[in-house]
Amino acid sequence: MAKDTLTITDNRTGKQYELPITDDTIKAIDLRQIKVKDDDFGMMTYDPAFMNTASTRSKITFIDGEKGILQYRGYPIEQLAEKSNFLETAYLLIYGELPKKKQYEEWVHNITYHTLIHENIKKLMDGFHHDAHPMGMLVSIVGALSTFYVDAKNIDDPESRKKQTFRLISKMPTLAAFAYRHSVGRPYVYPDNDLSYCANFMSMLWKMTEVQYQANPTLVKALDVLFILHADHEQNCSTSTMRGIGSSRVDPYSAIAGAAAALYGPLHGGANEAVLRMLDEIGSKNNIPSFIKDVKEGKGRLMGFGHRVYKNYDPRASVIKALADEVFEVTGRNPKLDIALELERIALEDEYFVKRKLYPNVDFYSGLIYQAMGFPVDMFPVLFSIPRTVGWIAQWEEMLKDPEQKIARPRQIYDGSGVRDFVVMSKRG
Ligand code: ACO
User: Fold this and answer.
1) Number of folded domains in the chain?
2) Is residue 394 within 8 Å of residue 232, measured between CB atoms?
3) What is the pTM of this model?
């Protein structure tokens, strides 16, 4: 009769072991009993880059990479993008259910009324060089918030966690906008509580001398949808960083500084910045074949293509591609779009990309929209960090409440030299 177990024969000893299987998974720690000698450490798994290791159980985000499915708490991303808004989706991700009317109103109120930052943070911001990358500023300043909110270290207190959640989700746009204003040498614009989350962010970015900034509603909606699409993506590099740092039980500001730093890299949240630089480099449709040839010869990557989990079209990329038309109606067409569309067409027919199941990911088109909306390229990873803060918090909460989690501490296979005696400098030749 079929059994939910895995039988392993160790051919070094002839011994057999029967390990339980749950959810198509065995526990790595169950392998530790496999030894040749009693005083051996026991067998481990070797999994650089966590290609096949589940580090947690999670109820937040479901991805089926083969089928191109993404769901938050069971709701398909396409439905959320069409019918929800960013703050409602944020509530869903963090609390597990869509809010009822009263819960939603309280939630929006709490986020809206925590947007101001301490005046000293402006001084910190002023200390950065005029051409400092806004993401570098954001990473530093979100970490510095832990020195302003010392109650944040009470991570076992649900009330404290709730307060930091409001503060983080509400202040990230303020920090992001202030970093931008600093980089262009404009005075900081304070939050406007009469505006929605995204309209307020746009006001803090672009308001000049008018009494109230009037953002274009189509662009506000587009930004809101982009924020929904970027809010969580299960155990990606920055989220694993958030959980890893958080597992040391540090405050959430310090953990988010680490998560945001992970997001900054060109293989993760920096990819849409890299896509635009790549499109600039290609310059015109005529140069695409030689660019593709170079990629296939290993002289660089087609940025915005490929994903560790998706081996199909990234569902977020499909929503963004449709959104692009609405945005370009307002802003005018981004001339790089034609190069991107042609690149996609060629790559999706090319044996190299087909064989490796490389499809456009979320970053392939998002940069084009952000640029058309007026965001400088340096702001792209910052724009990613704002909504992803929600996912980081949801995953951090889940990690803290999970009795199976402990401080994250992988093992290694030591490959270095055996023990040797110290040699004084004069005798080192
Ligand atoms: N262009 C060209 N070749 C690629 C690309 C690409 N974008 N991505 C993967 N490949 C090739 C690799 O060279 C490798 O080929 P090989 O088997 O002949 O050696 C094969 O496809 C598998 O690639 P890996 O690097 O092993 O895949 P991995 O899962 O480690 O990488 C990653 C995923 C980092 C996203 C990769 O596809 C990549 O670098 N893409 C470009 C950067 C990018 O768009 N990142 C954004 C990801 S989405 C996000 O973070 C929000």
Assistant:
1) 1
2) yes
3) 0.93
